[in-house]
Amino acid sequence: LVSSLSLLLGTTITISSNHWMMAWTGLEINTLAIIPLISKSHHPRAIEATIKYFLVQAAASTLVLFSSMTNAWSTGQWDITQLHHPTSSLLLTTAIAMKLGLVPFHFWFPEVLQGSSMATALLLSTMMKFPPITILFLTSNSLNSTLLVTMAIASAALGGWMGLNQTQTRKILAFSSISHLGWMTIIIIYNPKLTLLTFYLYSVLTATVFLTLNTTNTLKLSTMMTSWTKTPALNTTLMLTLLSLAGLPPLTGFLPKWLIIQELTKQEMTMTAITIAMLSLLGLFFYLRLAYYSTITLPPNSTNHMKQWHTNKPASTSIA
């Protein structure tokens, strides 16, 4: 309960503050609140994930503080929207990229998600991304555009590429998150409201996927192949949600991608738009594979898992 309240408090402080010190305080409260939730199971992998998460977030928060101090030193301003010093801008972009898990600061994110329970992984993928994205939104006028676009394209590429090779559902969703963050950060300088729209839709769809996987206790693809015997209706919904996350046209997830490509074309960044659209095909492949495994059919190979019929009691959630 204390952790949940602290999470809400930290997020609220950060998204509603105009002063750098208040924003930093909110980020720190958030970090400290999520740590007991990750380490709750006392599994060695969970403890490892907690330490990784703490070190990365502490380093990023230090950079945020350093960036705001440098800016205050040169301009005399502690206001978040008045970030005019070029070094501060560069440092802040790096710090927020670390907090979000953008390439090349993404290494911690899949590992931390793999060591967390499904509920904590959901919090890390959605709610914990909200304060850093809000800071990007507030400082979008003075961010380094070249650096952001480069990191965004790299994130879209790596998120899709690495997701192809995974069999653990949490790692697949971690790389999916990195790929979506690429779409969010590429447009934040040109149209920040589109970033928020993308984030809101991504959060709703990801929450649906995580909660479904939590209900069916699906941690691996091999378990997913047999989960349709237990909850066929839920698995059908999961398939539609996955295809929506992939951005297939008739579904909701296509809307932000369409608007982002349109905005990039208006900004005469046609090649950038084509590149990121082509890279999203990599993500489409593993979403299709997940959708295929969850509902359409059983692949023609035997699995080591027993089919989970309705009479079975759900197994306790493990993180191994």
UniProtKB/TrEMBL annotation:
The chain crosses the membrane at residues 20-38, 50-69, 89-109, 121-139, 145-165, 172-190, 196-213, 233-251, 271-292. It comes from the Eukaryota. It is found in: Mitochondrion inner membrane. One of its GO terms (biological process) is mitochondrial electron transport, NADH to ubiquinone. One of its GO terms (cellular component) is mitochondrial inner membrane. Its main location: mitochondrion. It catalyses: a ubiquinone + NADH + 5 H(+)(in) = a ubiquinol + NAD(+) + 4 H(+)(out). Residues 17-282 form the NADH:quinone oxidoreductase/Mrp antiporter transmembrane domain. It is an enzyme of class 7 (translocase). InterPro entries: Complex_I_Subunit_2, NADH_DH_su2_C, NADH_UbQ_OxRdtase_chain2, ND/Mrp_TM. Its EC number is 7.1.1.2. Residues 284-315 form the NADH dehydrogenase subunit 2 C-terminal domain. GO terms for molecular function: NADH dehydrogenase (ubiquinone) activity. Pfam families: NADH_dehy_S2_C, Proton_antipo_M. It is a multi-pass membrane protein. Keywords: Electron transport, Membrane, Mitochondrion, Mitochondrion inner membrane, NAD, Respiratory chain, Translocase, Transmembrane, Transmembrane helix, Transport, Ubiquinone. Belongs to the complex I subunit 2 family. Core subunit of the mitochondrial membrane respiratory chain NADH dehydrogenase (Complex I) which catalyzes electron transfer from NADH through the respiratory chain, using ubiquinone as an electron acceptor. Essential for the catalytic activity and assembly of complex I. This is NADH-ubiquinone oxidoreductase chain 2. The lineage of its organism: Eukaryota, Metazoa, Chordata, Craniata, Vertebrata.
